[in-house]
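Here is the promised in-class demo. Please do not try to memorize the tokens; focus on the logic of going from shape to residues.
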């Protein structure tokens, strides 16, 4: 089991005091919060491609780096980073070849059923007001998605106006970063 391997590694990590190389405080050194995708190819690549080290930024992630509602949990995390944890810049980073691009919600529903979720549960949710298309649809282009998330952050009524919000796209194969929008 992978968890057992991770826990065994952690025991050695703590015993050998390897954590000391990562000691920092709660405030980001670069006074920045990065909102990006949970993409596994970016776990180390994003940090290396942008010279980010432990303690440099606050990192917030979800599937696709998508914000659709101004008071969802991602936006709350960004606001806490800015208002309480001294971040004064926000960077949204999407990536090419994202799994949230062109999500087929009908196919997703089929997978749910195949994985043991009863169809009547899905039907109950949808008749109760949960729209799977609204909740799970992705995006057509990553640039468009980044622009939408940036716009929601920039125009948030609780975000101080002096906070800069930028949008980038990273190539998960090469680490090359392109600017979509910059403030």
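The designed amino acids, position by position:
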């Amino acid at each position: 089991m992978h968890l057992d391997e991770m826990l065994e590694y952690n025991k050695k990590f703590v015993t050998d005091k390897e954590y000391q190389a990562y000691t920092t405080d709660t405030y980001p050194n670069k006074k920045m919060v990065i909102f990006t995708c949970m993409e596994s190819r970016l776990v180390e690549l994003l940090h290396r491609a942008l010279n980010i080290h432990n303690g440099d930024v606050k990192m917030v992630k979800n599937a696709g780096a998508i914000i659709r509602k101004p008071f969802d949990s991602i936006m709350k995390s960004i606001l806490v980073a800015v208002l309480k944890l001294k971040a004064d810049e926000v960077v949204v980073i999407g990536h090419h070849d994202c799994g949230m691009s062109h999500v087929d919600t009908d196919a997703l529903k089929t997978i749910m059923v195949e994985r043991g979720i009863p169809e009547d549960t899905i039907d109950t949710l949808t008749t109760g007001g949960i729209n799977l298309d609204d909740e799970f649809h992705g995006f057509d282009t990553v640039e468009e998605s980044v622009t939408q998330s940036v716009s929601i952050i920039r125009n948030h009524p609780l975000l101080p106006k002096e906070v800069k919000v930028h949008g980038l796209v990273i190539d998960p194969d090469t680490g090359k970063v392109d600017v979509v929008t910059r403030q």
